[in-house]
Records
---
Amino acid sequence: MFQAPVSTPMACTGGPLSALDAELLIVPWFQGDTIDAVAGLDAATGGEFARALTSKEFQAKPYELFFTAITDMSWRARRVAIIGGGSGERGSDLIRRLATAAGLAARQRYVARAAFAVRGQGDAGDLAQAVAEGLTLAEFYGGSYKTEDPPPAAVPSWTVAAFETGDGAQAVAAVARGRILGECSNLARELSNEPGNTLTPREFAKRATALAGEAGVKTEILDEVQIEKLGMGLLLGVARGSAEPPRLMVFRYDPPGAPATPVLGLVGKGVTFDTGGISIKPAEKMEQMKDDMAGGAAVACAMRAIALLKAPMRVIGIVPTTENMPGGKAIKPGDVLKSASGKTVEVINTDAEGRLILGDGLWYARQLGATHLVDVATLTGAVVVALGKVTTGIFGAPDEWVERVRTVGNRAGDRMWPLPLFDDYKDQIKSDIADLLNTGGRAAGSITAALFLKAFVDDVPWVHLDIAGTAWSDESKPYLPKGPSGVAVRTLAALAFEKF
Ligand code: BES
Ligand code: MN
Ligand code: ZN
């Protein structure tokens, strides 16, 4: 049987830029660079580049683009695109974004073969990986249901030009890694982009486990009967209002020879559509709630990346998935649910459903032996108030584990900032008739949501990432078009390579 390749390779070459065989050569340029910062480049343009700099036509502002011909016939590329990198840090975070922005610009111009010259500060492998990730992120297309627009330009074949360091084994491996991480981010974006009517919990489970399964991850889909047997009253409670049955995805990555511990446990919120349930949401922007499974998609696609990249440690992934609907059997404010852990919850707002299904999910990850937990969820509107649309809220304990995840996240291009979990906030989620309330009111809404999750993790090191603001971009940026961002995929995958 024909098996589609799980990843398509990306070229990596060393050698002088003049020898690069591409239609378009892309070169980052930083404010403060002297004209000879890239040897021979200006001469290859017949002095056109220096002229543009002097006249201020091109000022190297972030993401600014300058296209010109390469007139020197001893160069193989015929055109160059110089992309501005500004005057700030030139680390891999910026380079990744420059690669995406330039990649998108190349696609707009129907370029078939583009090469990106790796420049910047820091480890050469990190930079090459970031370029591969960034170029791959430029391949995402969100208009798959359009029937009348001309089809999008074919994806160019990309080359990462490690012209300063050479195409040694390190650069080649870094590009391969970046390629996989970019592709897995795009797969998560595709899932998040999918509407609620096509991506039901059953369909989500089918697609997400297929993605991970073809990479070698062991997968299981538990149905409502098995979920009931596990006693997951929180997940079942949320699912009651929907005609679609819930599912629980279980991913296991067990590389031969891996030590018994640590076991990384990844848990993702998989609400395929969140109407709010009986505590129904206003109509305005409700359509956005199709991406309320972005955390679950990040977990599934990170599991795929982890297996493709052959991470050295054991990893478990858990994605509870359901709709949150206001059907005749739906849970009502005031209802009490019993979790798989035994804790009881008084549901005073059915729109705080994510923490419910994650409570059961986190408990199960622990049951399966996770020693270090990370959950990812579009959990609260309040985190958007606190941190806006560019920063993921990070919570957890102990501090060392939170710091570790944050450091890895920032390196992967997922910006995170911590919010506190002081015990004092716990009063807000005390119930008169059960162990917990499912909401703590408006004040510190993201914190009380995180404290609710904490009740289900015991003493296991745990981090919660609230991606409600970062999973979806409302406006188009040079490096991120409107739509799903694929947040957290690269962070979760990179964690499986850490020592803890
Ligand atoms: N899925 C939403 C959170 C959300 C809001 C994600 C906006 C992305 C953008 C979550 O299930 C929810 O409804 N949370 C409520 C909690 C409240 C009822 C305590 C919220 O944030 O309003
Ligand atoms: Mn909700
Ligand atoms: Zn939700």
---
Amino acid sequence: MTETSNSQDARVSFQELKSLLTSIFVNNRTSSETADILAENCAACERDGALSHGIFRVPGYVDSLRSGWINGLTVPDVVRLGPSFIRIDARNGFAQRALASANPLIRRTVRDTGIAIIATRNSHHFSALWPDVEPFALAGFLAITAVNGLANVVPCGGRKAVYGTNPIAFAVPVHDADPLVVDQATSVMANGEVRLHALADKPVPDGTGVDRAGNPTTDPHAILAGGALNTFGGYKGSSIALLVEILAAAVTGGQFSFENDFTGFAGAQTPKAGQLLVVIDPDWGRSTNFASRIALLCTQLVDAGQDRLPGERRFTNRAAAGQFGIPIAADDLQRLRMLAGEDL
Ligand code: NDP
């Protein structure tokens, strides 16, 4: 959670961590329903070792809620506008709450029509994307999503930030195995990772970003202080970031990353953006043996020498956390307990 987290690890159960986080959100202008959804999401990131979006994010959530930039009490508006098209106005609330509210409708729509397209606007996404897609793969569906954010990424060759770190994620079922889940920023590095480097005073690799004058730098502080990140993969990655911006902001009717303006909301950190999610039942109408075909594809990847499958690291961490508890620095745990209002 902070740079001073150098004490011995404590171990907590998922439920214990979730309950602490729920109290923290409720203490900070969040409804109990939304607090539960956010706490589940944040605790799951910590449990899976997705540390850039676990408890490290708690101060950012709290500051955004306290500043009034985001509404933790709001209820999203979910409307099915066509056989497969669902639009959500998150009403300046969290994207996870919006998605949870639409979940039964999404599943019904996929069962009815084979596909659901969910366009969410007026939402804040401050977490990893895998929790948004993995549950659909566990239900046998393919899910793909894109989210835009705060302008902190320069287009290829540019000197000024236009894109957010614009992550994309997808998940598919694999016969007799964990689902295949890919979740990545379209910037060279996720912003949370740059912040972790800055906290540790560690340089980032060459090519990660630019300083406020647009010059290349490996100093994470310079990237965070008015500089920006590069997209991955040169102009090709830059075009993927462009696609995310179009899908998540323009298709949804949400804000572009460069339209975020925190004026009057001191301390706010959550990007106000949009999210597009597509969920497909690949076996709809006729079996394609989809999960078995993906299993075959995964075997080929491993046989070809790929280090590991995407998502595998998290599933390994999850299993270990289930057995031994979630490791958390003792001083971080103490801070969480204080924020939760527990007597120490
Ligand atoms: P990483 O580069 O760490 O990982 C990207 C993907 O590649 C993951 O699915 C990961 O699987 C997989 N992977 C990593 N190493 C290997 C390997 N050697 N072989 C095969 N697969 C591999 O992610 P990023 O740093 O780009 O993003 C981190 C997080 O930040 C994401 O969860 C993203 O959603 C989030 N984010 C959120 C934003 C927001 O606005 N809400 C903005 C930007 C990013 P595994 O998970 O198993 O390691």
---
Amino acid sequence: MTDARHPWWHGAVLYQLYVRSWRDADGDGYGDLRGIITRLDHLSWLGVDGIWLSPTMPSRDEDWGYDVSDYTGVHPELGTLEDLDTLIAEAAKRNLRVLLDLVPNHSSSAHPWFVDASSSRDSEHRDYYVWADPAPGGGPPNNWLDATGQSAWQWDDRTGQYYLHNFLESQPDLNWWLPAVHEEFRRILAFWFDRGVAGFRIDVAHGLYKDAELRDNPPLAEDNPLAGRFGLRPVYNANRPETHAVFRDWREIAGRYVPPRLLLGETWVAEFARLAQFYGDNDELQLAFNFPFVFAGFGAPQLSGVVAQTLASMPAGACPVWMASNHDVGRFPSRWGGDDGRKTRLGLLILATLPGTTVLYYGDEIGMSDVDVPADLQRDRMTRSGHSPRFNRDRARTPMQWDSSRSGGFTADGVTPWLPVGDGARCNVEDQCLDKASVLWLCRSLLALRHAELGGRVARYEQLPAADGQWAYRVGDLTVVASFSDQPAGIAAPIGEVLLGTSAADPPAGDSAVLRPWEGIVARTPAP
Ligand code: NOJ
């Protein structure tokens, strides 16, 4: 359904595809667009509705595409504009929509705007970026730190001012106070929407505007991935209220298309009320990533608590988003489950049955774990910069494990993949396809159930009384009971006909079910 009240993403499943790591068609060790086309059937078989491609635009790859040097091109290593058109057309044949990654908070320092801006103070594009004089006593203009914990200000000798970079030095922040920057992005949005791109995942959607007075960020007692890092709360270098007007503008542009184009924000915020604000009055982003859910512990009170708070804060009609793995935060089978297969299966059940939109990360469907990438093979500069050693993002960016061969079926035999392949013998698509008790088949069954029972709408959710260590909820006409316990335990109340369970063995019956440790079941419970 695609009418305004039932847009296609309600109840849908999106699949984040890290292009460099999914499938290498040209044998250079890097995944590419042609490689994706060869494996689209996997996604339609799985039951996915849309794919979000990690950055595809030309880039110097200081931050693997998140440093864009041309917003209307395709990175030559990944393919051509024509390849992207073909991918969109081939995906459409399989009912799959294609979302791109848009990076509006910063560009690459190699972008012609910045090359010009840093050539002289009078250059045409000077004000596209955030420049400032030294603090009165000398040194950086304020206390803002970048993503590696260094000053977010880089001195530019040539023009005698600092420029701002909230991420790497090679990622100068754009100046959203300048109307011309808005105009540029309107043009960029239309360029891709006109080509049939179904929408954007918007990088650092909580960023964009910076405090006009460049005030110091306040101190933070304790670091936390959501509230702030390096002892500072990001109050003035991000999270500014003016950003919401940008999304209202973009939503209006997205709404000119049929079906409307989708804006999915990387909204890295800790408070549910703030998360809700990104939906505006149904006139900003249609979807906003929920990071408190990602960082919730894998337990009944933690997860149910985040879900309850999320839903209580959402404006009426808004569509929540659930994901547990991505290219920054790592893979959920490792974070939530310590690579215990029962927990991976339970995690998938939860992701597949919550109301709204679910986003899987490539490899989630086979329970891929984080890979321990040795220091000499690491490719992420934010890791390699050495300022945040706990933050190795390569672990979740390793090649898709298609089969048990040395290259994982990701690239041709004899080619060295850009990152090492994980344990393909233990976990790969080919073997799991042949085993109906596998994680892959469970994931496929869950997505089929989701489409049949929860598709096309944001289903009603209600938490139910549950036995200790269990989380029970009703979503649409389904009842889900999930056990977060090492012990078998009975459920609190009968739940009707069990449709599916996460164990490889038969699910328990729904009348007086005893759940095995870390087992979840879904039953159909029609309204009384
Ligand atoms: C968030 C992206 O997901 C991450 O990979 C990137 O490094 C930063 N934004 C900067 O663009």
